[in-house]
Design goal:
By secondary structure, this protein is an all-alpha fold. It folds into two domains: 1-184, Ferritin, CATH 1.20.1260.120; 185-309, Up-down Bundle (Ferritin), CATH 1.20.1260.120. 75% of the residues lie in helices and 0% in strands. The chain has helices at residues 4-32, 38-62, 68-72, 81-92, 98-104, 117-149, 159-180, 187-212, 218-241, 248-274, 284-306. It is globular, with a radius of gyration of 19 Å. It comes from Clostridium luticellarii. This is DUF2935 domain-containing protein. Pfam families: DUF2935. InterPro entries: CotB-like.
Amino acid sequence: MLSSIEFIQQSLGLHLFFARIMKEHSFFLEVGFTQKNSNLILKADRLRMEFDRLLADTIALSNGVVSCSVLRSGEVITPFTLEAEIASVYFTGVNILTNLTKTEATLMCNDLMMINPIFEQRVFMLNKRAMELVSVLVQFKSRILSAVISCKIFTNNYPLLIDHILREAKFYHKLIQKLQSREDMNLEMEAYKQEAFWNRIMAEHSKFIRGLLDPTENELINTANNFGNEFDKLTKEAKETMDKTIPISEVTDDSLKATIEISKFKAQGTQGLVNCKIKSIIMPLLGDHVLREANHYLRLLKIFKEAGV
């Protein structure tokens, strides 16, 4: 069973990462619809603002409380987040709350916090609220995906991207549920599940990047394609570890090396998008978004490796 400190720090760390991811999913959906679906644009916009509020409340609770490893990982914000948001506001006219990013840049961590039962209850209620909000977003994404694949609406987002962000929302919901029940993490089982999940996510990121680059960006297209193939292989191997065909430690080592490299690739790509050095139809915030996900996965892989899983 999780201790009170573990419950508080893991909950806040999870929301600092995933609440921002969910608000950006809502943004990507919002700007991908056509004017005919103005009702869907408004729904996505409302969800984005709800996640803004969730993130703002998480930030307020996190200062001087959240784990240092989370703040240092680059999964909360990166050196490019603010610029990517400003550029995306310019391109779309959507009012992204950049003040949240500025506040996150000032957050202080603490690995030796004191337990306060009232504070713990506030975190419990934040988790409850997050679960309810994520459930609404899951329903919305499911409805959009169904409409897109049955040709009832058009969006600039790939059907796979919508399915991809739907899986991430369901994963987030499941992780909050585990925290609420104070479920202690079995590191070996968690490694199996997390590596199978995130290797697939990394593979799909590579394929989205490949498909959104300008056709003249041959070198970047080839690099993205190679990453896609590499992470497809790692996804398959992570699933095979569950049958004990391959030791999980071997896959963790390979996943760690590949994720370090794709994180560098995404960082260079995001910088190129922000500085208008790459020809593409990639929103700058999408570049930073996938970079943060790689950084989050890197932190998890390092935990698994250090634990000898």
